[in-house]
Amino acid sequence: MDGLGRFATFRRIALPLSRPALGALAIFTFLHSWNLCLEPIVFLSSPEKFTLPQALTQFVDAYGGPMWNVQLAAASMTALPVLVVFVVAQKQFVEGLAHTGLKG
Question: Within a domain: residue 103?
């Protein structure tokens, strides 16, 4: 480790130790941004640009009532990306949660 700069020391020592915590943080950040409901309504002006949770409310019948079969099918399809992200990063997520209560 002699002769390494600050960035190389960080990259070889600190970053591998913090990988599980960074994986858990990435999953939580993705879930938070995926499930935003109020902010897109405030910032977006047209229904064509709505996020998926807001688009689910647009499935209504001729009388303005919800089309439950279409909404539930679309809700199950919008849950698939979240499940894929969790399956891909499951190892880092579990390790990050397991190391939170350990002492040095």
Answer: no
Q: How many domains does the chain have?
A: 1
- Copy the structure tokens of residue 103: 């002492």
pLDDT bracket for residue 49 (50, 70, 90) = confident
Q: CA 37, 41, 47: angle at the middle one, nearest 5?
A: 110
- Judged by DSSP in three states, 60 sits in strand
Is position 79 within any domain? yes
Say whether 66 sits in a helix, a strand or coil. strand
Give the dihedral of Cα atoms 58, 63, 66, 67; nearest 10 deg.
-90
Return phi, psi of residue 36, to 5°: -60, 130
Is 30 inside any structural domain? Answer: yes
Listed residue (18, 9, 3) closest to 99, CA to CA? 18
Q: pTM, whole model, 2 decimals? A: 0.60
Q: Which structural domain range is residue 30 located in?
A: 6-98
